[in-house]
Design brief:
48% strand; mainly beta; 22-stranded antiparallel barrel; 5-stranded mixed sheet; 11 helices
Length: 919
């Protein structure tokens, strides 16, 4: 039934493909001439040689191979951009940061614009990453706007940079068909370094705190629980693209099917995608029409978040199966005195968890826009552009817990049904006037426009049915956010040497509506200059210098995104006084019934957006006909009015609220260089390297707070409410706030002993200090590609230096693991060495240097050329991803977003074989 459903989803696209193939019999237009390299700059484009802001463009020829999400295509490819995988689960996507962080609690992801349609920052129920819903094979270019002079045109959503994604278009000419298929197998990188069965027996028997009762709990099995949950997982990625032109109608139709199974058993991701691009022109080419339609149908099966933790900690001396039918036959820790018969404190059997929970979702997304660009007949230098877009996403999910297994035993089984719907609308119009005024040798490019974007979200109340007949339903949630904007930009190019650019955007956002319009509107300006030194007479005749350009920019941008209220429910009205229904579990009792009541929501009428001011200086260079080329940028970002959920004085509706409470600065430098050592008829060799360094520092938090004030963040596993990171003035965001461990003369840690840093003879929180952070000292990227006749070879690698991670699996391990709560828990390999009686969560011994070098991708291919017919092509290639990682970090993977390693779903190592056929 599932396969039949998939066929139904893509059948209309195949029918359309068949129609296109039969419709086109010959070339519609002669081959297009080569044009100057241009880069998108937001509401327009500009020659790369004329750019004044810090903008990087990455095209399809430089993408990483084997990517299953958009972010992975450019991982490590450009300076200033750090892309970290959310996890190794298929479909989990990536986190993207441009030049570090600009916010403490607000959004730090860049604004993504796909074919002119800005995306929202709201997650989706049943989806790990909304960008995973876009087929990466349909993407042509990424244009990355990094400094505020470039991003100010996007106003209050641009403090973290802007990424303009352009999908592939049709080109007039012969009909072309491209088919690619890849088969892959994924394996785990390694295992968490916990004790094996015999080591654990020795640990328990030698534990001075373990009584005879606990030692008797040891079993006779030798179970590697991590081997029980991991698997070699196969995957396939298939894509067909048809392109060409029918009577002056350039088109591209793409069909894709991607299926990935996770390295944790039962985890899977399936995506069917359809894309259609039409690019006709009318009225003697005065009217250009771009139609972009994309549809994806995604099926997910998620693995429960406890599975990896359970496999880490479950006693390796116990068997997978108990030998009886209780809890589905899986071994569980028992407690005859409990109502369920099992020990509620004990770790759950990880295999039982996998088979006891089925969490699936289906997601449909349609993203489309039509863009009309009209060149006036009476004034061809003036264009009028209209862009109308619609982005619709619908998800439905079901989480089932088997009542026979521990996962659902207490409720005698349960079924939870959830859904979510997003409807985003866009209307943008702008005038663009481009004129070269020869009398003053100046090019003019002026843009003025209007934008309206509306975001609607509906989350029906999730229903949970239980075998105990104690069912529940959440309340429906519906919200809307509207953004209205006016913007303009002027670019003057004087004598092809000096370029001046200025932009301004006025944004009106409903998010900060407080009953008045006081905080609704904001203005975000930007200005930048460029001096093309290579066009000056004193350099122009130096043949070895191809490009030499100085850039300078200044601008202000905004940030209005707040964390979700609950799940993926956006916090759209934090400044407005309102009454909202109480949450589940907070009902008011009348008799034997509980009722939802309306209660006043906490709000801050003075809340407004964060504002970031960025200064940027840059140098672009190219030598020997650009065989050596690159750029260097230095920058400083100053953010004020940081959005933070902070304590407030008594007398309000709550003891904390969203406030604009602080400032932060971020200084950095980045650079890239590309060298082509060999370039001839048979062989081309290209080498690229990029490096980034930045240092964010909090310069202000709450007014009138003393120097000891901080805001604790970074929740960890173990204890109750423990946090390991903090924001504090003078330090990087998310710095680790810990005690300094004391060591004996042999270099071993002393249990419970910490350095008295203030010398008052008392060990308390006044002795804690800020030790390292999640901010790396340097981010490096390296790639090279070689083509020789029909062969090609490429690899890409990344290094992150000075990156620190808190090893929560190690900190949660101690002698107590084998002497508490009537069950045995496995421990990290350091526990027998440290021999801490109880967990020392706040010790700096667990903050580890997680610097690493990772070989992301290596591939080799052979092109067989015209093996079938003239104009056809066949290429076969082999590829390996996540080939190796060199690091001192004791965990499985040093690249953990957020810097806290606790049950992390590791990145798989992937081996692939594929071929590409086109004619």
């Amino acid at each position: 039934m599932k396969n039949f459903t998939t066929v139904l989803k893509i059948a209309p696209a195949f029918l359309l493909a068949s129609t296109v193939i039969h419709a086109q019999k010959k070339d519609s237009l002669p081959q297009e001439k080569k044009i100057d390299e241009v880069v998108l700059i937001g509401y327009g484009k500009q020659k790369k040689s004329d750019l004044t802001g810090s903008i990087t463009s990455v095209t399809a020829k430089d993408f990483n191979g084997g990517a299953t999400s958009a972010g992975q295509l450019i991982q490590g490819k450009t300076p200033g951009v750090q892309i970290t995988n959310n996890s190794g689960a298929p479909g989990s996507g990536t986190k993207i940061r441009i030049r570090g962080t600009s916010s403490l609690s607000g959004e730090n992801s860049p604004l993504i614009v796909i074919d002119g349609v800005p995306q929202d920052f709201v997650g989706m129920n049943g989806v790990s990453d909304p960008l995973s819903l876009i087929n990466p094979n349909d993407i042509e270019t990424f244009d990355i706007l990094k400094d505020a002079s470039a991003t100010a045109i996007y106003g209050n959503r641009a403090s973290n940079g802007v990424i303009l994604v352009t999908t592939k278009k049709g080109t007039a000419g012969k009909f072309k068909l491209n088919f690619s298929t890849v088969a892959s197998v994924s394996t785990k990188m390694g295992k968490v370094d916990v004790l094996n069965a015999q080591e654990f027996r020795d640990f328990v028997n030698g534990n001075p705190y373990a009584s005879a009762n606990y030692k008797s709990k040891l079993g006779n099995a030798n179970t590697d629980w991590q081997d029980q949950i991991y698997q070699a997982a196969w995957g396939t990625d298939n894509n067909v693209a048809l392109s060409g032109g029918i009577k002056g109608l350039p088109y591209r139709l793409s069909l894709g099917y991607n299926e990935q199974n996770g390295i944790v058993r039962s985890n899977s991701f399936r995506r069917t995608s359809v894309g259609l691009n039409l690019n006709p022109k009318f009225f003697d080419n005065h009217l250009s029409v771009n139609v972009n339609l994309k549809g994806t149908f995604t099926d997910n099966r998620f693995v429960d978040g406890e599975v990896i933790k359970a496999a880490t900690y479950f006693d390796p001396t116990q068997p997978v199966y108990s030998g009886n039918s209780n809890y589905g036959g899986y071994y569980e820790w028992l407690d005859p005195g409990s109502a369920t018969g099992y020990n509620v404190n004990g770790n759950k059997n990880p295999v039982g968890l996998i088979n006891g929970i089925r969490d699936v979702s289906s997601v449909t997304r349609g993203l489309g826009n039509i863009q009309l660009d009209y060149k006036f007949h009476f004034l061809p230098d003036l264009h009028f552009n209209v862009n109308a877009g619609y982005d619709y996403t619908k998800s439905d999910g079901h989480k089932f817990k088997d009542g026979n297994l521990r996962a659902g035993f207490e409720d005698k089984g349960s079924s939870n049904f959830y859904s979510m719907e997003k409807k985003n609308k866009l209307l943008e119009t702008y005038f663009n006037y481009v004129k070269n005024i020869s009398a003053i040798d100046t090019g003019v490019d002026i843009t003025a426009g209007y934008s309206y974007q509306d975001f609607n979200i509906l989350i029906p109340g999730a229903v949970t049915y239980r075998g105990t007949n104690i069912n529940s339903q959440d309340l429906n949630f519906e919200t809307r956010n509207t953004l209205i904007s006016f913007y303009g930009r002027a670019i003057f190019t004087i004598a092809n040497k000096y370029v001046i650019s200025g932009s301004v955007r006025k944004d009106g956002s409903s998010r900060f509506f407080n009953g008045t319009r006081d905080n609704v509107w904001g203005v975000f300006p930007g200005v930048s200059l460029a001096w093309k030194l290579n066009e000056e007479n004193f350099i122009k005749n130096i043949s070895s210098i191809s490009t030499l350009k100085l850039r300078a920019g200044w601008g202000k941008t905004g940030q209005q995104e707040l964390p979700a209220l609950n799940g993926n429910k956006p916090n759209n009205y934090p400044a407005f006084a309102a009454y909202n229904p109480s949450y589940q579990g907070a009902g008011y009792q009348f008799g034997n019934e509980f009722y939802f009541m309306y209660r006043p929501a906490n709000y801050n009428p003075n809340l407004t957006w964060e504002t970031t001011t960025t200064k940027n200086l840059g140098l672009d260079f190219g030598f020997n006909k650009n065989r050596i080329s690159g750029s260097i940028d230095v920058f400083r970002k100053d953010t004020k009015d940081l959005l933070v959920y902070a304590d407030e004085a008594a007398g309000g509706l709550s003891n904390a609220s969203w406030q604009n409470v602080g400032d932060m600065k971020n200084e950095g430098i980045e650079g890239s260089i590309t060298v082509i050592p060999v370039k001839n008829q048979n062989t081309t060799w290209e080498v690229s390297f990029n490096a980034t360094h930045y240092k964010p520092v909090i310069t202000k938090l709450k007014d009138r707070a003393d120097e000891s004030f901080n805001m604790e963040v970074g929740g960890i596993e173990g204890g109750s409410g423990n946090r390991i990171q903090a924001h504090a003035v003078g330090y990087a965001p998310n710095s680790f706030w810990v005690y300094q461990q004391v060591y004996d003369t042999n270099g071993k840690p002393v249990d419970g002993a910490f350095v008295d840093r203030n010398g008052d003879g008392i060990i308390n929180t006044k002795d804690m200090y800020y030790y390292k952070s999640t901010t790396p000292d340097a981010i490096l990227g390296f790639s090279t590609k070689v083509s020789h006749k029909n062969w090609d070879f490429a690899l890409s690698a990344r290094a992150v230096l000075g990156n620190y991670v808190y090893n929560n699996a190690a900190s949660n391990s101690s002698l107590q693991s084998a002497s508490t709560n009537e069950y045995l828990q496995n421990v990290f390999a350091t526990a027998p060495e440290y021999r801490f009686a109880v967990p020392q969560y706040k010790s700096d011994i667990y903050v580890e240097n997680a610097s690493f070098l990772r070989l992301d991708n290596i591939n080799v291919g052979y092109n067989f050329g015209e093996v079938f017919s003239k104009g056809s092509n066949l290429k076969i290639y082999a590829m390996a991803q996540n080939v190796f990682v060199i690091t001192k970090y004791s965990g499985v993977d040093p690249e953990v977003f957020g810097g806290i390693d606790n049950g992390y779903y590791q990145m798989p190592r992937i081996y692939s074989l594929g071929f590409n056929f086109q004619f």
